[in-house]
Amino acid sequence: MQARIVYKDFSKDYLLPMVELANLRFGDNYINTEDLLSYITDRGGICTLAVDEKEKLVGFCLFYGETSENISEQLKISKEEILSVIEEDCNLCVAKSIVLEKSAQGMGIADNLLKINLEKAKNMGYDYVFAAAWDKGGGDVPAKNVSVRNGFKFLKTSSMVWINCKNYKCVVCNGPCRCDAKIYYRAL
Ligand SMILES: CC(C)(COP(=O)(O)OP(=O)(O)OC[C@H]1O[C@@H](n2cnc3c(N)ncnc32)[C@H](O)[C@@H]1OP(=O)(O)O)[C@@H](O)C(=O)NCCC(=O)NCCS
């Protein structure tokens, strides 16, 4: 499968399949088309799609630009913790989602999506990226290996980062998400 995967920039044709894929893998109401489009078009979004030979979406990676104040609030990292790993006055982005169809896992597609998005983020002038990697419990952190392989460093564990996401029904919690997040960061 990997040989037939094409990596594309975001296009609106894939908006609905992206929402469907994310909601399938993370849980109902993880995101909707309006919010997804807003991340990409209004919030300095960086997005790469992986599509198969039939042009069907099999995965995507999304970053967006964010202030250190909002990263502090959203990812539950103190300003001091942020400043301990970055320089002041630099441009920050957040790795919002990396997700694949289950059948597309374990082939290096996540690796390619992340590499491409990191390169785009660097070219757009971002200096650092922060990521909240979903901790599904029992040591299952799906994005850990791909993140570490691509130079991300572990900062801390933040608890219940997604608890206030309106109507989101996490597939692990079967309701409001009480999962922890492993916070990673990387210089670009
Ligand atoms: C997170 C996610 C995108 C990772 O995808 P993945 O394909 O499992 O990526 P990984 O990098 O962990 O696994 C790649 C595996 O493929 C194999 N592989 C085969 N060819 C490869 C290649 N060219 N490059 C890298 N790995 C390759 C490796 O064995 C590797 O295993 P390893 O990590 O033990 O070394 C995927 O698990 C997913 O969509 N999960 C559900 C959504 C989710 O949790 N997203 C993260 C939220 S923070």
What does this entry look like structurally?
The chain is α+β, with helices and mostly antiparallel strands and 188 residues long. The chain has a single domain (2-187), classed as Aminopeptidase (3-Layer(aba) Sandwich), CATH 3.40.630.30. Helix content is 29%, strand content 29%. The protein contains six helices and nine strands; from the N terminus they run βαβαββααβαβαβββ. The protein has helices at residues 15-26, 33-41, 68-75, 79-83, 109-123, 144-149, and strands at 6-9, 27-28, 46-51, 57-66, 92-100, 128-135, 153-158, 169-170, 180-187. The protein has a seven-stranded mixed beta sheet with strand order 1-3-4-5-6-9-7, sandwiched between helices. The radius of gyration is 16 Å and the shape is globular. The relative contact order is 0.18. Bound molecules: coenzyme A. Coenzyme A (COA) is lined by residues 25, 98-100, 105-108, 110-111, 133-134, 142-143, 145-146.
Looking at CATH, which topology would you report? Aminopeptidase
- Number of E strands: 9
Q: Which CATH-level-2 architecture?
A: 3-Layer(aba) Sandwich
What's the arrangement of strands in the largest beta sheet?
Answer: 1-3-4-5-6-9-7
CA-based shape: globular
Number of domains: 1
- Order of helical and strand elements: EHEHEEHHEHEHEEE
Beta fraction of the residues?
A: 25-35%
Instruction: Give the biggest beta sheet.
Output: 7 strands, mixed
Q: What's the pLDDT, averaged over the residues? A: 96
Termini Cα gap: 29 Å
pLDDT < 50 stretches: none
Q: Give the helix proportion (percent range).
A: 25-40%
